[in-house]
Amino acid sequence: MEPRRFAFHKLCWVPVGRGSLEFGASRLPLGKDELLLIPAGDEHRFVDNPTAPLTLVFAHFSAQVVNESQALRSIMPPLQDRFQSQYPVVRMDSYRRGAVRDTFKRMLIEQSRGGPGATAILHAGLIDLLVHLLRGEPARKTASLSREQALSGTLDYIEDYFHTPIRVKDLAEMCGISSRRYSDLFKQRTGRTIVEYLSERRVAYAQDRLRETGQIMYAAVAAGFSDVTHFYRVFKRITGMTPGEYIEKLGETAQAEGDLPASS
After folding, report:
1. Is the pTM of this model over 0.85?
2. Radius of gyration for the chain, computed over Cα atoms and rounded to the nearest angstrom
3. Which residue from 157, 188, 184, 191 is spatially nearest to 171, judged by alpha carbons?
4. Are 49 and 17 in contact (CB under 8 A)?
5. What is the spatial distance between Cα 175 and Cα 8, in angstroms, rounded to a whole number?
6. Which of helix, strand or coil describes residue 87?
7. What percent of the chain has pLDDT over 70?
């Protein structure tokens, strides 16, 4: 997709995926649960991360809508003052994420329904979204992330997507460096190779699922292991026991705790 200009402001929510906003020669990384404002007239385009394509939800509004609304006129200047950035962007906590999702849902329903009151609800929804942008926690990004910031971003990515196939090549591309250089920096940062780090994260998640369900196959698949034999091998290497032995130990521990006398 080529960069384009639009005659309206774009309020953008990223519910899923990773990528970036490209403008001129600069790039602003974007990720899940971020809310972003793109001013009217700015040439830009969105670029997906190939391993986790962006899903974007927009609310478009014109300068005329802002000029005709005292509430909107009162919000736009503080946005510019607070962020001191061409593109205000916040990363939402669980509260704001749920509120923004519900507001967009309500606006989509009203847009398709039309009729009396729809315009007022759309207007109220837009004000609500902009207030969340104004009061949200700034993502504190710059158009050019430092290598350390980029590496931290890949750790966040692994935390979100450890249960899916992850390639070193894709992680390195997020940082704009070679796979070998990325592997070296990763080891320096975490004390582990990427394979070791991923394996430990997946096994820890599998342990949680085994405690909940006792189902070995379910735990393996949920944690991102496509091969059960490989799951057994990695699980034993990290924990010192097989998944079956781990379940037995959980049962013995629960029984022992149940036999303890109640404290007075």
Report:
1. no
2. 24
3. 157
4. yes
5. 32
6. coil
7. 92
